[in-house]
Design goal:
Alpha-Beta Plaits, Acrflvin-R, AcrB_DN_DC_subdom
C-alpha cells in the first residue's frame, strides 16, 4: 500500500504539486509567527509564552464583612468545604480563611472538563441547605480562567497631547471611571473572562451617627439601617380611577443624592418626623481599602484583564487593545490650572504581548538558523545542488504541517512546544538525505536512456520500509512521555507532541512529496540553446531586481544564471559549474548565519563575524568530509582488529560506571 501511494504520486505529479500547495497554504494560515499572508486567511495556533502547568481548579469566594478569620472558618469555610466534597471528580479541596472573606480552592482530576466542573459547583451551591451559611452571605464562583490568565494590566492616567503625565485627577474619580466605563467596555472584548479593578477609592454613601443624639431620641442602630433600606426602593401600589382614567400609584424612593438620605425618616411622633440628618452626618466617602496599586512611587488606579480558559492569549490582547482604541474618544478630559488639557488615557502596565513576541522571535530565529545550518551541511556533504534543494525543502513544509496538527489538536504554541520542532529538525532531514542519496546512486548506475519515474520509484521503494521503521521506532519511544500526568505531563506532552508530529510530517514529505519532485529535478532535459539562454538571462534579471529591493538572495540567482550561461557556451564543464554553484550557495548561507548569529558581537564588523563563522563551519564540515573519505579504511581496520577496537568502548563504559 505504501509503495502504491508513492508510485501514484510519482506518475501524477500534478496531484503532488496540488498537495504541496494545500499543505503550505494551510500551514501558513495556522502559523503562530504572525506572518503577513496577504490574501490568505489568518487562523493562527493559540500562542503563549510558557505552558500552563497549573492544577485543574475552581475557586469559590465568599465575603462576610468585618468578621474574624476564626468566624469565617467556623461558619463559612468549613460548612462549604464539607458540602463541596461530594462533587464528582474532586481530587482535593484547599481553603483559606482571612479577615472578611473565605477562599476555597477545589482541585479536580485532570480528565475533568473545565466548564463541566463549574456547572457541578454551581449546582451544589444552589442546593445548599437554607441555614447552612449566615444570613446575607452568598458564595460566588471565581472567573473561568487559570493562574496564567492575567494577560494585560493597565492604569488610568491624565496625559497631555504630547503623552506627558499631567495628573489633575483624584483617585475617586479615576476609580469611578474605571468601574462604570472602562471595565464594562473591556469586559466585552472577545475572550475576556473578567476585568478586575485595582487601586483608588470606591465611592459610597457614608452615615456617621451621633451616639448622644441617638440616646436622646431613643433610636437604635438597627432602626437607622432599616430606614435606609426601606427608603432606597420603589414601591408599587394599586390603581386609582379618576374621571374614567386609570392612574398607576407608585412610590419612588431610590436614593439619588445625599439629600435623599439626609431626609430619610427614621421615626415619627406627634406629627413630627425624625430624619437621619437630625441624628447623623451623611456624606460621600471611600470604601474601606485592603491595598493599593503603586506605579513608580505614585498611587494609581488600574485594572487587570483576565483571559478565559483555553482562549488564545495573543488574540485576546489584540481584542482588548482594539477595544481600548474604541473607548479612547469617550474618556473624559479636564483643563488644568496651568492651562494644559489633561486627557484620561489607558496606559499599559503589563502586556504579555512583548513576552510572547520575544519568545516566538527567539524560536523563529533558532528554527531559521537550524534550517540554514542543515542546508549548508546538506549542500557540502551531499555535493549535489539539486538534491540539496530537494532535501532543504523538506524542513519548512514539515514545520508548516506541524502547525496544522497543533491547530487541529488544540496544542498551544509556547517555548516548550515549539522547542520540540527544533529538537526534531536533525532527525527530520535524515530521511530526505537517505532517500535522495539512494536516488542519485540509482541514477549513476542507470544507462544513458532511462525511465526517470521507474528509477525514482525503485530507489524510493528500496528504502521506504527502513525509513518507516526508523521513524516509528522513534515515535514509539515517546509513548511514556504521553502517559505523564499532572504538572509534568502538561509541561512535556506538548514537546513530545510537536516532535512526534514533526517526524510524521517529515515522513509524509519524504516518502510522498520528495519522489515526484525528484523525478522532475533529476530528469534529463534536452532544451534548445535559445530557450536555455532566455531562461538564464531571466534568472540574472530577476536576481538584479531582488538586489535592488534589498534581497541578498538575488546574488544566488545572478550567479546561477552566469554559471549556466558559461556552461552553455562550453566555457565551464558540468562538474565545475556544480562546484561553483555549491561554493556560492555555501558562502551566502554562511553570510546569513553570521548576520543572525553575530558570535563576535553586534559591535564587531560583519566581515569579522563572517570570517569567524566560515572558519568554524568549514573546519567542522572539513573534519566530517575527511572522516567520510577515510571511513572505508577505518572500517576495514576495525574489522581486522575487532578485540583491540572493542576494548575502547568497553573501557569508556567501565570508566563511566566508575564515576
Amino acid at each position: 500500500m505504501l509503495n502504491k501511494g508513492i508510485k501514484f504520486l510519482i506518475e501524477n505529479k500534478i496531484v503532488a504539486g496540488l498537495l504541496l500547495v494545500l499543505l503550505v497554504g494551510w500551514g501558513l494560515t495556522n502559523s503562530p509567527f504572525n506572518w503577513d499572508l496577504g490574501i490568505l486567511p489568518n487562523n493562527p495556533v493559540a500562542v503563549d509564552a510558557i505552558p500552563n502547568i497549573g492544577e485543574n481548579q475552581q475557586i469559590v469566594f465568599t465575603k462576610w464583612e468585618g468578621r474574624s478569620p476564626q468566624d469565617i472558618e467556623d461558619q463559612i469555610t468549613y460548612p462549604l468545604t464539607t458540602s463541596l466534597l461530594g462533587i464528582p471528580g474532586v481530587k482535593t479541596i484547599r481553603s483559606s480563611s482571612m479577615f472578611g472573606f473565605s477562599s476555597i480552592y477545589i482541585i479536580f482530576e485532570e480528565d475533568i472538563e473545565f466548564y463541566w466542573s463549574r456547572s457541578r459547583i454551581l449546582e451544589k451551591l444552589n442546593s445548599l441547605p437554607a441555614n447552612l451559611l449566615p444570613q446575607g452571605v452568598n458564595p460566588s464562583l471565581g472567573p473561568d480562567a487559570t493562574g496564567l490568565g492575567q494577560i494585560f494590566w493597565y492604569t488610568l492616567e491624565g496625559r497631555d497631547q504630547n503623552g506627558n503625565v499631567t495628573g489633575g485627577w483624584d483617585l475617586q474619580e479615576l476609580r469611578s471611571i474605571q468601574d462604570y466605563y472602562v471595565k464594562y467596555a473591556l469586559s466585552g472584548a472577545s475572550g475576556v473572562s473578567e476585568v478586575a479593578s485595582i487601586g483608588g477609592y470606591v465611592q459610597e454613601y457614608q452615615i456617621d451617627v451621633n451616639p448622644e443624639k441617638m440616646r436622646q431620641y431613643n433610636i437604635g442602630l438597627q432602626q437607622i439601617v432599616k430606614a435606609v433600606k426601606e427608603s432606597n426602593r420603589d414601591i408599587g401600589a394599586q390603581t386609582l380611577e379618576i374621571n374614567q382614567a386609570e392612574y398607576l400609584v407608585r412610590g419612588l424612593g431610590y436614593v439619588k443624592s445625599i439629600e435623599d438620605l439626609k431626609n430619610t425618616v427614621v421615626s415619627a411622633k406627634d406629627y413630627t418626623s425624625l430624619r437621619i440628618k437630625d441624628i447623623a452626618n451623611v456624606h460621600l466617602g471611600p470604601e474601606t481599602r485592603r491595598g493599593i496599586l503603586d506605579k513608580e512611587g505614585a498611587e494609581v488606579v488600574g485594572g487587570v484583564v483576565v483571559a478565559r480558559h483555553r482562549a488564545n492569549p495573543m488574540e485576546v490582547i489584540t481584542n482588548v487593545k482594539a477595544q481600548i482604541e474604541k473607548i479612547k474618544g469617550g474618556l473624559p478630559s479636564k483643563e488644568l490650572k496651568d492651562g494644559r488639557t489633561s486627557q484620561l488615557t489607558v496606559v499599559p502596565f503589563y502586556d504579555r504581548t512583548q513576552l510572547i513576541q520575544e519568545t516566538l522571535g527567539t524560536l523563529n530565529e533558532a528554527l531559521l538558523m537550524e534550517i540554514l545550518i542543515t542546508v549548508l551541511v546538506i549542500i557540502i556533504m551531499v555535493y549535489n545542488l539539486r538534491a540539496s534543494l530537494l532535501i532543504s525543502g523538506l524542513l519548512p513544509v514539515a514545520v508548516l504541517m506541524v502547525f496544522i496538527a497543533m491547530k487541529f489538536f488544540n496544542v498551544t504554541a509556547n517555548i516548550v512546544a515549539l522547542s520540540g520542532i527544533a529538537i526534531a529538525i536533525g532527525t527530520m532531514v535524515d530521511m530526505g538525505v537517505i532517500l535522495s542519496e539512494n536516488i542519485i546512486r540509482h541514477l549513476e548506475k542507470a544507462k544513458e536512456k532511462f525511465n526517470i519515474n521507474a528509477i525514482v520509484y525503485q530507489a524510493t521503494s528500496e528504502v521506504s520500509g527502513a525509513i518507516l521503521t526508523a521513524v516509528l521506532t522513534t515515535i514509539i519511544s515517546f509513548i511514556p512521555v504521553f502517559t505523564m500526568t499532572g504538572a509534568e505531563g502538561k509541561l512535556f506532552r506538548p514537546l513530545a507532541f510537536t516532535k512526534t508530529m514533526a517526524l510524521v510530517a517529515s515522513l509524509i514529505v519524504a516518502l510522498f512529496l520528495i519522489p515526484p519532485f525528484a523525478a522532475i529535478l533529476f530528469k534529463k532535459r534536452n532544451r534548445r540553446k535559445k530557450a536555455g539562454f532566455i531562461i538564464n538571462i531571466a534568472m540574472i534579471i530577476l536576481g538584479i531586481a531582488a538586489m535592488i529591493f534589498g534581497y541578498l538572495l538575488g546574488i544566488i540567482l545572478i550567479t546561477f544564471g552566469i554559471v549556466q550561461l558559461l556552461q552553455q557556451k562550453n566555457i565551464l564543464s558540468a562538474a565545475k559549474a556544480n562546484l561553483i554553484n555549491i561554493v556560492i550557495s555555501a558562502l551566502v548561507i554562511v553570510y546569513f548565519l553570521a548576520t543572525y548569529w553575530r558570535p563576535l558581537g553586534i559591535t564587531q564588523n560583519i566581515a569579522l563575524n563572517f570570517i569567524f563563522v566560515a572558519l568554524i563551519v568549514f573546519l567542522i564540515l572539513g573534519g566530517f568530509t575527511l572522516f567520510r573519505n577515510y571511513y572505508t579504511r577505518i572500517l576495514r581496520w576495525t574489522l581486522q582488529h575487532k578485540l583491540l577496537f572493542l576494548s575502547i568502548p568497553t573501557a569508556i563504559v567501565i570508566f563511566g560506571f566508575s564515576l
